[in-house]
Amino acid sequence: MTRDTAADDLDGLLRRASGLAEQAGGAPSGASHDAVEGHDPDGLVTARVTAGGRIDEVRIAPRALRLGSHEIADRAAAAINAALDALEQATAAEGAADPAELAERLGELRDRSLTQMRAYVTSMQNLMNGFERH
Fold first, then answer.
1. Is 111 exposed, middle or buried (0-12, 13-18, 19+ CB in 10 A)?
2. What residues in the chain have per-residue pLDDT under 70?
């Protein structure tokens, strides 16, 4: 096994491990939900949150302005929480991974990495033995 082959093999293993970790975390690699909306029960306050969980916009209907500031704040919190819940559901549905399949793939990755590490160690031992002979 050459140094370049070992580096390529290790790089490939790390990329596969990273992909599996991303899949396990439920983080889709290209989330199609840029933003989702939620609203309070009466639809007077609407909030939009982005895929990163940041509040993008809060809209208050003119009818809500007759309410007190505490009531508007409660409705805004309800709308934001509804939007965050919708984002979480959308993200979970997109990035859901089958735990059994994921465990099997991680086991295969572990086995491949052990095989490649053994080959790398053998190469290093052969190299060191070559130095001892000269």
1. exposed
2. 1-33, 93-98, 134
